[in-house]
Amino acid sequence: MIPSILSKSINERFRSLGIESGGINDFTGVAGGCINDTGIIHFDQRNYFVKWNSRKRFPEMFKKEAKALEMLGEACPLKIPKPIFYGDEADYSYLVMEWIESRGRVEHYWETLGQGLAELHRTKSERFGFEEDNFIGSLEQSNTWNTNWLEFFFENRVRIPLEMAIDGGIMDPSDLKYLERLKDEIGNLFPEGEKPALIHGDLWGGNIMSDSLGAPCIIDPAIYFANREIEIAFTTLFGRFGEDFYSAYNESFPMELGFEKRIELYNLYPLLVHANLFGGGYVNSCRQILKRYS
Q: Domain locations in the chain?
């Protein structure tokens, strides 16, 4: 159940914005989130999705998520939930957004997703990173600007989460010896020339859904500007997307030669994230990739 202090705060925000004049009629909890508490708030004519968590543990998480959703909504033709407002109340932070009723996927679901993601990746920057750090899951994601993709990937997507895992006792200090050799060994694997692309940043099967028409919708972003290959690699990690997705993406925005050789290396980042969050077999997966590429 949503805490009463949050329900009161959300009602007041709705009234002040002139969106809903009455109060919340009902609340339905929604399962599936492993980080935040979530549910649907019901008004007379409309429903909204709400998520909340500790404001001390995850400062500005929902402010950053709202910004990410707005940016994706502007840059991507796919359905993106619209943020309504975010706020802090007592010990909580919360985000209210559009509620999307999901139905079965339409026939060309995967093709539409591939084409839409290719369009998103045409939004470019002059630097890799983002204007602020944000979150991937419950882990802070470092987005310090860099004009060099190899350096950004190595420092922000490998070194930081690896050292975090070592400091947390999840991985061993001896794993640093692989890190020291990694940068020199992988330099010739990375493509050059493409400008940084805006990516969703956490694109796996759990963060895609179908909207009320059965078309693809993407949720829970961890955006930054990157080489777009890291996004496509991520879609192969926890069960590949439908093959029509890859065909449609490549037809719209062909991948660079040698991408297949880089997939496992790119996926070192989400595996390091999972090692920090869950430990277990993810640690061995990270170590094996470090050994292989170094």
A: 4-98, 109-293
Exposed/middle/buried for residue 117 (C-beta within 10 Å: 0-12, 13-18, 19+):
buried
Instruction: Return d(Cα 151, Cα 163) in angstroms, integer.
Output: 16
**Superfamily holding 4-98:** Phosphorylase Kinase; domain 1 (3.30.200.20)
Out of 173-177, 183-187, 233-237, least confident range: 183-187
> Looking at the domain covering 109-293, what would its CATH class be?
alpha beta
Same fold across 4-98 and 109-293: no
Model pLDDT for residues 1-54, shown as the tens digit of each residue: 888 999 999 999 999 998 887 888 899 988 766 789 999 999 988 999 999 999
**Cβ atoms of residues 121 and 190 within 8 Å:** no
Contact yes or no for 229/255 (Cβ under 8 A): yes
Query: What's the CA gap between 179 and 165, in Å, rounded?
Result: 13
Rounded distance between C-alpha atoms, residue 87 and residue 55, angstroms: 10
Would you say the pTM of this structure is higher than 0.70?
yes
For the chain, what is the mean pLDDT?
A: 94
Is the pLDDT at 95 greater than 90? The verdict is yes
State how far the Cα of 207 lies from the Cα of 200, in Å rounded to an integer: 10
Half-sphere exposure of 50 (CA within 13 A, CB side): 30
| Residues 107-140: tens digit of each pLDDT | 999 999 999 999 999 999 999 999 999 999 999 9
Residues acting as catalytic residues: 202
Give CA–CA dist 97/80, Å, rounded: 10
Which among 89, 50, 68 is positioned nearest to 134, based on CA atoms?
Answer: 68
How far apart, in Å, are the Cα atoms of 143 and each of 25, 127, 135, 157? 41, 11, 10, 9
State phi, psi for 168 to the nearest 5 degrees. Answer: -85, 5
Average pLDDT of the segment spanning 53-72: 95
